[in-house]
Amino acid sequence: MSTLQQVAFRAGCSVATASRVLNRNGPVSDEMVRRVRRAAAEIGYRTSGRAGNRRPAIGVLIPSITNPVFASSLSSIQSRAMHAGHSVLIAQSNYDPAQEADAVASLLQQQPTGLILTVCDPEHSPALSSALPPTVLLGNLPTQRFTAAVATDNFGAGRDLTDHFLRKGHSRILFIAGHFAASDRARQRYLGYVKAMEAADYPPFEPLEISFVNSLDQLDLSDVVSRLKPTAVIASNDLLAIGVMGALRRQGFSIPHDISVAGFDGISLGLLMELSLTTVEIPEVTMGAAAASLLLDMAENAAPPRHLTVPYRLRPGGTVRNLKAVS
């Protein structure tokens, strides 16, 4: 049976240093952390912090457990974790930056192998301000401190979806999103929209930011539609796009005859509607599995952190009208 002394000898450090690394209870250089974890992995050492029959676990933070996108990611994370002998601990932030730190603190109490986090804004998240075990950002871009991330190019996705509308003759395109402070993904998609509009010499509209967590069946777009008279609406995710379609229909608009609508994510619900939703498919299952694999490699094998970019795909549907088509 391997011992802490053997880990320290193999890593070329003191027993106290090896203990600090493996129990995460003191300052240690990044290089030493990698050396100790690699040594522990090579000789099969497990810390007493995982004593008894308790199974090692991965902690996962998501914005909302009810969004099908995050449910898909969770499913693939759990599958990969179980294959590696880990369980999964889940917390949600409800798209609230103030709740993120408490949620992560709750996960840390369970002494996880590492964390997979989808935060509102990684540059300003209070959840990322303290010392953390190996951590992978999922859906967020990497930061200078947290360089391990699995994401898609949300800026490019926003630009390409806007170009899709422009090619079909739309120039009055409204962007509706959750509050950007609650989602850097939504903000990046909007910036891509702005880039495409400006490249086509059309003035972009200011975004309409609404709460992600409010009931979408109460969404009222009468004022903004009356003022801006858009021919098309881009929603920052598919659930919001479906809510937008409901709001427009309550106002008497026909989709896509009067107003076209599109979203992001590619959730299966968008394919089950009377008109399939035009969307940008984000491979959340692939991203979740990649994040789990990357985290386990970092935590168990002392692998260096990496930034993985997963490709997206535009999925045309029946909710976008071609204004250039002959009537």
Element layout with pairings:
Layout: H1 4-11, H2 15-23, H3 30-43, E1 57-62, H4 68-83, E2 87-92, H5 97-108, E3 114-117, E4 135-138, E5 149-151, H6 154-167, E6 173-178, H7 184-199, E7 208-210, H8 222-228, E8 232-235, H9 238-250, E9 260-265, E10 278-281, H10 284-301, E11 307-309, E12 313-315
Parallel strand pairs: 1-2, 1-3, 3-4, 4-5, 5-11, 6-7, 6-8, 8-9, 9-10
Antiparallel strand pairs: 10-12
Beta strands, count = 12
From the alpha carbons, calculate the radius of gyration and give it in angstroms. Answer: 23 Å
Query: Into which percentage range does the β-strand content fall?
Result: 15-25%
**Arithmetic mean of pLDDT:** 89
- Supply the helix-strand structural class: alpha/beta
Second rung of CATH, namely the architecture of the domain at 154-281: 3-Layer(aba) Sandwich
Shape: elongated
CATH class of the domain at 154-281: Alpha Beta
Query: Could you name the ranges where pLDDT drops below 50 across 5 or more consecutive residues?
Result: none
InterPro entries: HTH_LacI, LacI/GalR-like_sensor, Lambda_DNA-bd_dom_sf, Peripla_BP_I
Domain HTH lacI-type: 2-56
Keywords: DNA-binding, Transcription, Transcription regulation
GO molecular function: DNA-binding transcription factor activity; transcription cis-regulatory region binding
Describe the structure.
This protein has 327 residues and is α/β, with parallel strands linked by helices. Among the domains are: 1-54, Orthogonal Bundle (434 Repressor (Amino-terminal Domain)); 154-281, Response regulator (Rossmann fold, 3-Layer(aba) Sandwich), CATH 3.40.50. Helix content is 39%, strand content 16%. It has ten helices and twelve strands. It has helices at residues 4-11, 15-23, 30-43, 68-83, 97-108, 154-167, 184-199, 222-228, 238-250, 284-301; strands spanning 57-62, 87-92, 114-117, 135-138, 149-151, 173-178, 208-210, 232-235, 260-265, 278-281, 307-309, 313-315. A six-stranded parallel beta sheet has the order 2-1-3-4-5-11, sandwiched between helices. It has a six-stranded mixed beta sheet with strand order 7-6-8-9-10-12, with helices on both faces. Residues 2-56 form the HTH lacI-type domain. GO terms for molecular function: DNA-binding transcription factor activity; transcription cis-regulatory region binding. It comes from Rhizobium jaguaris.
